[in-house]
Amino acid sequence: MVAGTSCKSKHAYFEIKGKIVHAKGNKLSLKQLEIGSQNPVLIDTGLIGKDGSFDLKTFMPFDQALFVLSIENGPEVT
Is the pLDDT of residue 53 over 50? Predict the structure, then answer.
């Protein structure tokens, strides 16, 4: 699996775009890890295109945050 991402700050949200090759699933989810919690919060979901491309958008967190990108039937990427 190879992924490329880029983040842009526009109007208090950020965007993650990339391309994933050899994904076993076609559904993608973005989760935010909150400090002191072991349960990530679902932020956005999307589909991986036939060419492997994806595009997710979400609001900017108030503080620093750690995110988890999950592929259906695949590993999580932090």
Answer: yes
